[in-house]
Design goal:
About 25% of the residues lie in helices and about 20% in strands. With about 325 residues, the chain is α+β, with helices and mostly antiparallel strands. It has a single domain, classed as Sandwich (Jelly Rolls), CATH 2.60.120. The strands form 3 sheets. The chain has an 8-stranded mixed beta sheet. One of its GO terms (molecular function) is oxidoreductase activity.
């Protein structure tokens, strides 16, 4: 029977042997069934969640000129104005209209003396001069989320029949994104193909989404029906992304999802994308293939896959018109 709501996974016992085993069992059921779940009782407190949402609201309340002064740089960090991204690589729908949303993108910190500095997506973050406390709020939340996600690697590995520490080497220098999104309200009679975020899948490993109470996120079930990811205070909505689906040979699915803000007010969400090292090679796990279930996807370097999608989906990465 297909689910009529997203499953909920309780992380109260995360980090204990018994807890990680129980969580692994629930993860396998949720991610194999619909690819999405609510996570409750995470290590991230309500105060931490509220602080990052408040920081996002403060940033998006700035004058347009102040935001555009820190437009997205070549390293995919900074402000993304409304209607500047089109999900051209969507495998779900023919997307021609840009997303009706704006966002601030922060990625993992790369110090100037880091050997990676200057490589694709390895550069400085950008910060609004008008909000002196903003940088500290974002960095604190990012650090808490990275620690949380590293702790998740053990139950994920256990769920896939791997040694608990199997995934750790792939995340020595993880690729992380924190995106502070603002969705203006859409008219109730807006066109069917107008979205705050058009139907799409995510690129990497796991997405950990903090959403406000406005609603608007929907997840596509296997039969094509769209389920509402109704906000639950204090929880995260977590989904499998493309690289994890490829790693598991489709055992866990990277599920299409979309956003349409019909709440009548502004919607704020803070997705955190936790992905492997840029040079990590992703190929079918031995525990997810056998003679009757050969690998469905060729091996791929995560960085190559990511850059190919960013280059197609974001206006600032397009070559100038001749």
């Amino acid at each position: 029977m297909l689910p009529d709501r997203l499953p909920l996974v309780d992380l109260s016992a995360l980090g204990t042997p018994e807890g990680d085993q129980a969580i692994a069992t629930e993860l396998d059921a949720a991610f194999g069934g619909i690819g999405f779940a609510y996570f409750a009782n995470t290590p991230i407190t309500l105060a931490q969640q509220d602080a990052i949402v408040a920081a996002s609201r403060a940033f998006h309340a700035l004058p347009d000129a102040a935001k555009r002064a820190i437009d997205m740089n070549e390293f995919h960090r900074g402000y993304m104005a409304p209607k500047t991204s089109v999900i051209a690589t969507s495998s779900v729908a023919k997307v021609t209209k840009p997303n009706y949303s704006e966002s601030f993108m922060f990625m993992h910190e790369v110090a100037p003396d880091d050997p990676r500095f200057g490589l694709p997506l390895q550069g400085p973050n950008r910060w609004p001069a008008e909000l002196p406390a903003f940088r500290d709020a974002v960095l604190a939340y990012q650090a808490a989320m990275e620690d949380f996600c590293r702790r998740l690697l053990r139950p994920v590995a256990i769920a896939l029949g791997l040694a608990p520490d199997f995934l750790l080497p792939f995340f020595e220098k993880p690729t992380t994104f924190l995106r502070l999104l603002h969705y203006p309200p859409q008219a109730p009679d807006s066109a069917d193909d107008e979205f705050g975020s058009a139907p799409h899948t995510d690129y990497g490993f796991l997405t950990i989404l903090l959403q406000d109470m406005s609603g608007g996120l929907e997840v596509r079930r296997k039969d094509g029906a769209w389920l509402k990811a109704t906000p639950i205070r204090g929880t995260y909505v977590v989904n499998v992304a493309d690289m994890l689906a490829r790693w598991t040979n489709g055992r866990w699915q990277s599920t299409p999802h979309r956003v349409k803000n019909l709440s009548g007010g502004d919607r704020y969400s803070c997705p955190y994308f936790f992905d492997m090292d840029m040079d990590a090679r992703v190929e079918c796990l031995a525990t997810c293939t056998d003679a009757g279930n050969p690998p469905r996807f060729p091996p791929v370097l995560y960085g190559d896959y990511l850059l190919e999608r960013l280059n197609k989906n974001y206006a600032y990465r397009q070559p100038p018109a001749a």
